[in-house]
Structure formats: C-alpha cells, structure tokens
Amino acid sequence: MSAPGVPADGVHVFPSAGEAVEHAARALVAISAGGARCSLALSGGSTPALLYWRLAEGYRDAVRWDRVEAFFGDERAVPPDHQDSNYRLAQSILLSRVGIPPAQVHRMAAEEDDLEAAARRYQEEVRRLVPAGPGGVPQFDLIWLGLGDDGHTASLFPASRVLEETRRLVAVSESPDGRPRLTFTLPLINAAKRIQFIVTGMRKAAIVRKILAPGPAEASTPPLPAARVRPRAGALEWLLDREAAGQA
Ligand code: 6PG
User: Fold this and answer.
1) E strand spans, the chain
2) Beta pairing partners, 72
3) Cα gap 67→63, rounded to integer Å
4) Mutation test residue for ligand 1: of 42, 43, 175, the one with most atoms within 8 Å of CB
5) What is the CB < 6 Å shell around ligand 1?
6) Confidence band (pLDDT; 50, 70, 90) for 1?
7) N or C, which end of the chain has less CB nearby within 10 Å?
C-alpha cells in the first residue's frame, strides 16, 4: 500500500497493534540514544494510549528519558486534569511513570481563556527548545500522530482554515462539534525529521485506504489533512496493524 509522496517502504503493516507500537517505541529508543537532547511530540487518541502504556511498561530504562523534551501536537481546550486532556492521558499513563524530568514536559495551556495567546506562547516554547532547520522552522526529532475517522490528524480537521496556515507553527482550531483546540500546523509538522502515524483497528481501514491508496473519488476532492503530512526533508512512516491496513 502506498500513495504519492509516501514511499512504499514508509508503510509498515504489523500483525497486531502491539507490534505496531513496539516499532514506534524502538524508534524513540534509537533517537534518544543519538544525541544530548531529543524532541518528541505526543498525540492524543486511543492508539497512542496503547503506545504510552507499552513505553511505561517496557521502555522505562531503554529510552533516555533524561534527554527527551516532550511536547504535544494538539490539545483540547480543557484543564489539564480533565478526562479529555491529551496531557492528562500522556502524563498519567506514561510521563509520570518513566522519570522524565517535569521541566522537560511541555504541555499546551489550552485551558486559558485567550487561546490565541496560549498558541503564541507555545510556539515560542517550541522555538526556544527545538533547533531550527534550514527554513528556520524547528525540526522535531520525532512526531507521533494519530488518524481520526474523518482524516484529521493532530487537531487539523477537514476543510479547516488552519490547514492553509503558512506562517504560524501553533494555532487555534476547532473540532467539528465546535469545541476549540490548539494544534501544530502543517509547516511545523512537515519540518520534522521523522513522523510516525500510528493507526490500528478495523474502524480505521476505510480512511487509511482513502489516504494511502486513493481512488478516483479522492482525486476529485481536496486532500484530507493527514494526506497533507509530507515532511519536506524528513521520514514519514505509517505504522498500521492488519486491521487498519484492510488485511484482516
Ligand atoms: C486528539 C488527536 C487526534 C487523534 C485521532 C485518532 O487529540 O484527538 O491528537 O488527532 O490522534 O483523532 O484518535 P483515536 O485513535 O482515538 O481514533
């Protein structure tokens, strides 16, 4: 399974969700071993939760957590202890359990009234801590992304104006039910050195096919947000289980 811009060797189909998340975990092991600092962007969603659980159970010592600067690719406009908070998910399952220094966990303050200001501040935090590449845009070592049933990723939803952002790195967006969110924009995502989509389960098979094996129907409609994730110089990987790949 491949799509224009996604090399066939960038699509990995694993026998199970567990094996897909192991691949992602091993990528973090290798990256954190490679330098004094490692920038990582976490995602929300159910498959990342499986990855976080696995990292905490099996990779506490294998990952150099003392080197990891952990950011969030998106956040819902709720307090950090809210059940919908991506920070809460990652913090409770993973970050609080692996000994990462709290100062290296960078949550989006999406509970604030002024979300535009919160987005600007988060952008500054990213700029301060993540080294910029040739275009002056910070280059994350690794960004983990999920895929929504409608083709959204991070909080970049179909037909959203935020998809056309060319300058800002972090922006305010809205989910289809009208609830505000903060999200990385495409310029920031596509500057990354490595991006891994982690997508599992039968429910995702149809949308995965639309993105990785588009037919005539997809060719005549605007590309879905996840299909616009095309790192300019970095590597793009799709980690699928057999169900999400439509091979179950
Ligand atoms: C979020 C996300 C989002 C998510 C997908 C997949 O906060 O909602 O970052 O992009 O990864 O919606 O979520 P599921 O795996 O739960 O379907």
Assistant:
1) 11-14, 38-42, 68-72, 74-76, 142-145, 170-174, 180-184, 194-199, 235-241
2) 42
3) 9
4) 43
5) 43-47, 74, 86, 146-148, 152-154
6) low
7) C
Q: Which is the closest atom of ligand 1 to the Cα of 47? A: 15
Instruction: Tell me the pLDDT tens digit for each residue of 80-105.
Output: 999 999 999 999 999 999 999 999 99
Q: Which of 158, 157, 212, 165 is nearest to 188 (CA)?
A: 165
Which protein residue has the closest C-alpha to ligand 1 atom 2? Answer: 44
Taking CA atoms only, the protein residue closest to ligand 1 atom 14 is 45
21-69 pLDDT tens trace: 999 999 999 999 998 999 999 999 888 899 999 999 999 999 999 999 9
CA-wise closest residue to 126 among 73, 88, 52, 86: 73
Residue with tokens 């801590």: 129
The confidence score (pLDDT) of residue 9 equals: 65
Domain ranges across the chain: 8-147
Cα(97) to ligand 1 centroid in Å equals 22
Q: What percent of the chain has pLDDT over 70?
A: 96
Contact 138, 169 (CB under 8 A): yes
Q: What is the CATH number of domain 8-147?
A: 3.40.50.1360
Token readout for 60 is 């506490």
Q: Ligand 1 atom closest to Cα of 204?
A: 17
Residue 235: the pLDDT is 96
Report the nearest atom of ligand 1 relative to the CA of 199: 15
